[in-house]
From TrEMBL:
Annotated organism of origin: Mesorhizobium ciceri
InterPro entries membership: Alkaline_phosphatase_core_sf, OpgB/LTA_synthase_biosynth, Sulfatase_N
GO CC terms of this entry: plasma membrane
Protein name: LTA synthase family protein
Compartment(s): Cell membrane
Span of domain Sulfatase N-terminal: 270-563
């Protein structure tokens, strides 16, 4: 009897120790507690490694975890739950680490590189244009071949080690029982679902507030610094959804003042040619740098003002979006790319309007038609055709890319051959970064500066490309002077070039890229202005424009062409009397008065409110404004987005 009692007393712990659901060998005590603690420890090490890679600063990473209720500890718990849940799916204890660790550490590395070169953290929407990144790899390999080789070797070695470890783990670690897998899923799934439910930054969450997870969506750099890479990345997942502005309704749209302007064009319709020149800027603005001869004499002589770019060193499509639509990125989620996310149906643009007035709307870009989704977007914008690398005749290269001279030849040839008035939107390619030394065999300029040889040669490559772009403008202007048809030419750079270390060595910037939130309006202008020329063969260059957002370019271009439109010259014309720069972090009046962080203020200028309401209505809403502001789209109204 005593013997049977003894056996009964030992039955429960013996069952737990021998249960293969724990994934541990028989004889070990407290396997469930041990498994949980080890999962937490693994999650802690992994989250620390992620933050260390992203931040590149050991002390900063340690300080992120010092206080017990900071988001770092919440992230550790979430990662532990993910590991436990995946273990249940895979059927082996801790095997989930072989999936989660490579994936998250790779994302952290990519995030660090993006922040280093472009100044922005990694967003979920960045994967919408992963194909563009791969298309630029040949340029990156040419710039840093040894780095590229090391990355390839590292990837191959890492994958080989991962496959070997995976197979060894499957052989050495006991399989989990059905009961053990179910127990893990019962724990992990509800808790993970709870964490997902509090990630919607647009709604208040008491739990999120208690955990000190504060979505700082207006300042993404601070958002990632405060909440950590993983949680900030998760908070940005809903960014593809654009919520209606407060007060949006048909009555709110009806209350917006209608400008006393109708759509009209001159009897002799002028050709309009817009050239958005890749990374065009004045490199002589770099401190202590002398470039001889002047790389941009023609732009300097004809300059009308400056274009205030909402981006730095990249994201060309966002500048293009504003320049063609007259809408602003300031009213869209931070980090979003309208070309990739929001333009999915016919959207009003300069091409839509001018085509309705008898123009042939044409787009030209010597790159591929899928880059930035341009092929689909240009069709939705109303262009008649888009000539890209796939449909253009073979174009002469200058350096590794199609030359500006070849693109200029194509513009002139097509304009001369057209009996209809033409609207051209051309995006150059030649001066795309990176700017590897010795990019051009016979440079015609010299760079003098107290910087490293690599930086001087990189800057020389950039200056040569800028000079070619300047000569392209000169050729267009000289050609237009001989034409009998009125011709308007607009020329501007999309953003400052990604010169990286050159900025640091010359003292132009503290880091490789400019910060999103500048210390002062003057610094924002210095780091975001590119040269702007708007010129007519009838009236010469427009003058004294100052710095303007690309959203206001349609107004200035059509005004120079003698064309009017309810939105592009009416509404934007009235808006330009209030502001000449409308940026996510800055408003700038014609008199130069600045309003930083305007979006965080309780009261927003009614003019900005109306601008935002109109844009939302035409892009995502019910298009109540179309008959009065975009009459050319009324017969083509389609179902609104359900983003």
């Amino acid at each position: 009897m005593a013997k049977s009692y003894k056996r009964a007393g030992k039955a429960a712990p013996q069952f737990l120790e021998d249960d293969p659901s724990t994934g541990y060998l028989p004889g070990r005590r407290w396997p469930v507690v041990r498994y949980g603690l080890i999962s937490l420890a693994i999650a802690a090490v992994l989250v620390f490694a992620i933050e260390l890679i992203v931040r590149g600063d050991f002390a900063g990473t340690v300080s992120f975890f010092l206080q017990p209720l900071k988001p770092g500890w919440t992230t550790i718990v979430v990662f532990a739950l993910i590991l436990i849940g995946l273990d249940a799916v895979l059927g082996r204890s801790h095997q989930s680490l072989m999936i989660v660790a490579p994936l998250t550490l790779s994302l952290a590395f990519v995030g660090h590189q993006k922040s280093h070169y472009l100044g922005d953290p990694l967003y979920p929407t960045d994967f919408l244009y992963a194909r563009q990144i791969f298309a630029l790899l040949p340029l990156l390999v040419r710039d840093r071949p040894m780095t590229a080789l090391a990355m390839v070797v590292g990837i191959v070695a890492g994958l080989s080690l991962l496959v070997y470890g995976w197979r060894m783990w499957r052989r050495k670690v006991p399989a989990l029982s059905r009961k053990g897998r179910l127990a893990r899923l019962t724990l992990a799934v509800p808790l993970l679902a709870f964490f997902v439910s509090i990630m919607d930054y647009a709604t208040f969450s008491w739990t999120r507030d208690r955990l000190q997870i504060i979505p700082i969506m207006w300042d993404q750099k601070e958002n990632y610094a405060s909440n950590g890479f993983a949680l900030a990345f998760a908070l940005n997942v809903p960014m593809a959804h654009v919520s209606a502005p407060p007060g949006y309704s048909d009555k709110a749209i009806a209350a917006i003042a209608r400008p006393d302007v109708t759509a009209s064009v001159p009897a002799e319709k002028p050709d309009i040619i817009i050239v958005m020149s890749e990374s065009f800027w004045d490199p002589t603005k770099l401190p202590g740098v002398t470039i001889t001869p002047d790389p941009i004499p023609n732009v300097r002589a004809l300059r009308s003002g400056s274009m205030f770019s909402p981006e730095f060193g990249g994201m060309t499509a966002n500048i293009e979006f504003e320049a063609l639509t007259g809408f602003s990125n300031a009213f869209l989620p931070a980090g979003s790319i309208p070309y990739q996310q929001y333009v999915r149906t016919p959207t009003p643009s300069l091409a839509t309007f001018l085509k309705s007035q008898g123009y042939r709307a044409r787009a030209i870009h010597p790159g591929t038609n899928w880059f930035w989704n341009r092929g689909a977007v240009y069709a939705d914008f109303g262009f008649n055709d888009f000539k890209s690398e796939e449909t253009l005749p073979p174009m002469q290269k200058r350096g590794p890319l199609a030359s500006d001279a070849a693109m200029t030849d194509e513009i002139i040839s097509e304009a001369d051959a057209s009996e209809e008035p033409v609207f051209f939107f051309a995006v150059s390619l030649q001066n795309h970064g990176p700017y590897e030394p010795n990019r051009y065999y016979s440079p015609t300029h010299r760079v003098q500066a107290p910087i490293s040889q690599w930086a001087r040669e990189s800057l020389l490559s950039y200056a040569e490309g800028s000079a070619d772009a300047d000569r392209g403008l000169e050729r267009l202007v000289e050609w237009a002077k001989t034409r009998s048809r009125p011709t308007v030419i607009a020329f501007f750079g999309d953003h400052l070039p990604p010169l990286g270390p050159v900025y640091v060595e010359t003292g132009f910037l503290k880091d490789n890229v400019a910060p999103r939130k500048e210390a002062s309006p003057e610094a924002a202008l210095e780091h975001h202005e590119t040269p702007l020329v708007i010129w007519s063969n009838r009236t010469g260059p427009a003058e004294h424009m100052g710095a303007v957002s690309p959203a206001f370019l349609p107004y200035h271009i059509l005004k120079t062409a003698g064309i009017s439109h309810p939105y592009y010259t009416g509404f934007l014309g009235e808006m330009s009397e209030h502001y000449r720069v409308v940026d996510r972090n800055l408003l700038l009046t014609p008199a130069g008065e600045a309003t930083p962080d305007w979006a965080r203020q309780k009261e927003i200028d009614p003019a900005i409110r109306d601008f935002r309401l109109l844009q939302y209505d035409m892009m995502f809403g019910k298009r109540h404004a179309a008959p009065d502001f975009f009459p050319e789209t009324v017969d083509k109204i389609v179902a609104a987005h359900t983003s």
